[in-house]
Design a protein that fits this description.
Layout lengths: L13 H4 L8 H17 L8 H14 L2 H7 L7 H17 L1 H12 L3 H7 L7 H16 L3 H26 L4 H29 L5
Length: 210
């Protein structure tokens, strides 16, 4: 995923950290990333031993949104559950920050990625609102238990954006070689993230995404 459209969530304040079980060291932070990701995906199915943590997570999401939890997930590898959720979070944040550009590149990409267009489930041509609706639907799938479907849909959406971004790069190459190069590198980053999400979906179906 390209770095420029995103901002990392704010650092944990003492007040916010108090909502979690202590200020973690790196090993504890990794454990906490996995625990929170699992709790959010499993929703109300958390066991009795996790009831207190579940209440804390619900409070965090309700009051702070996903930013705080996403910071915990940001250092996790792509082939882990928190790493997959981090990539979904970035996609959602990007669509909220730059929906017009994304909608235009999605429209361009539809002509080159017919299968992905169908899987992504966006009306054609999409507008900014349709783009935001898609990412909200993807994350709803996460919380609804359809994680592999959510990951595959997000990957399909990114594949369409890869095609649209590459086409945009072709069009501006003569007038702006530097801009074309940045767009090409962005398309490569989007492709890599799409592949990460597809791998995570496969791991989830195999019971190996944790």
């Amino acid at each position: 995923m390209p770095a420029s459209p995103f901002r990392r969530p704010a650092m944990l304040s003492d007040e916010r950290a108090a909502l979690l079980p202590g200020e973690p060291d790196p090993a504890e932070r990794n454990d906490l990333a996995h625990t929170t990701a699992t709790a959010l995906v499993s929703g109300g199915r958390a066991g009795a031993d996790d009831a207190d943590l579940q209440r804390r997570l619900v409070h965090l999401v309700d009051v702070e949104g996903l930013d705080l939890l996403a910071q915990l997930w940001s250092a996790s590898p792509a082939e882990t559950l928190p790493g997959a959720l981090w990539r979904l979070y970035l996609l959602r944040e990007w669509t909220r920050r730059d929906p017009h550009t994304i909608a235009e590149r999605y429209r361009l990409g539809c002509s080159r990625a017919e299968v992905s267009e169908v899987v992504a489930g966006v009306v054609s041509p999409p507008g900014p609102q349709e783009v935001r609706d898609l990412t909200d639907a993807v994350l709803h799938g996460v919380f609804g238990g359809d994680l592999d479907v959510a990951l595959d849909r997000a990957a399909a959406f990114l594949h369409v954006l890869v095609a649209g971004t590459a086409l945009d790069a072709d069009w501006v190459e003569d007038a702006d070689a530097g801009g074309a190069d940045r767009l090409t590198r962005r398309a490569g980053a989007l492709q890599s993230t799409a592949e990460d999400l597809q791998q995570a979906a496969a791991l989830w179906r195999a019971g190996k995404l944790d």
